Amino acid sequence: MIPPVRVAALYQFTRFGDCPAIQKRLTAVCKAQGVKGTLLIAREGINGTIAGTDTGIGAVLESIRQLPGCAGIEIKESRAAAMPFHRMKVRLKREIVTMGEPDVDPLDTGHYVAPQDWNALIAEPGTILIDTRNDYEVALGTFTGATDPHTRSFSEFPDWFRAHRDELGAAPKVAMFCTGGIRCEKSTAFLKAEGIEQVYHLKGGILAYLEQVPAEESRWQGDCFVFDERVTVKHGLTPGEYELCRACRMPVGAAEKASHLYQAGVSCPACHAARTEAQRARYAERHRQEQLAAARGEAHVGAVFPDAD
């Protein structure tokens, strides 16, 4: 049986003029169609993930495709047994993915590499492979041989690169990747602006690779963090075994759950020392309310996810 909820992840770098008008238009169509999720609107484009019925998602996507530069927007679709979001948010932002480099043109990107060609590229001698994601994402899984910048947010990537630029050599060949491709649009544009000519990135990101490349041919190790209720996915985009700490929004696996610092809905080893007893008491009450709502078959609005920055 096909799961009833249609989930659509999307982004498009383009040039928008009247962002408030776009926000108003998309808010109205999402509300009318009962679609939930998050859409970010900025002068540089659109980014987000939404979920709803087939008809509802179809109507919203049609409205998005009518926006300037979005006619050919690529959509990553999946199915869910239940609605993965609790509300609909259409937000205005300075950037649809925050790097903090206003002079970088995200339309001037590096070379796209299809998932089927990625293994050959990163196996070439001299190719420098860089994971552009946040440290907690890299800790769950990455490509064999990839460099981890140990950044806590994407906005730290430019400083990391400039600090390590000389280590790359005079004319490096750099291959970069991220979850769905959007961060690499900006990171490759940034490297080109910094004078790197041979810059490549995985088209469609890790998710496209895990979906299209057979596990027996894979150079991916571990899980891939995703920004929805699945938390992580494996090859074939099957859900992983991680859950989300509702206190700090970090992924927790078997090792974290075995810690005495872990309490479902309240704390995990990553955040226990940074929270007060009063905060943990509030989290415990929220968790209790979530369990009561679940028992009644209702959605609770307290769940949140980290942004892909």
Proportion of residues in helical segments: 25-40%
- The average pLDDT value, as a whole number, equals 92
How far apart are the termini? 35 Å
Radius of gyration: 20 Å
Number of domains: 3
Order of helices and strands: EHEEHEEEHEHEHEHEHEEEEEHH
The CATH topology of the largest domain, please?
Answer: Oxidized Rhodanese, domain 1
Low-confidence stretches: none
Q: Give the number of helices.
A: 9
Helix-strand category: alpha/beta
| Shape designation | globular
The CATH class assignment of the largest domain is Alpha Beta
| CATH superfamily (homologous) name of the largest domain | Rhodanese-like domain
Largest sheet: 5 strands, mixed
Into which percentage range does the β-strand content fall? Answer: 15-25%
Strand order of the largest sheet: 4-1-3-2-5
Give the second-level CATH assignment, the architecture of the largest domain.
Answer: 3-Layer(aba) Sandwich
Number of beta strands: 15
What does this protein look like?
The protein is an alpha/beta fold and 309 residues long. It has three domains: 5-92, Alpha-Beta Plaits (2-Layer Sandwich); 111-222, Oxidized Rhodanese, domain 1, CATH 3.40.250; 244-309, no CATH class. The protein contains nine helices and 15 strands. Strands 4-1-3-2-5 form a five-stranded mixed beta sheet, with helices on one face. It has a four-stranded parallel beta sheet with strand order 6-10-9-7. Strands 8-11 form a two-stranded antiparallel ribbon. α1 (19-33) packs antiparallel against α2. The longest helix has 19 residues, at 277-295. The mean pLDDT is 92.
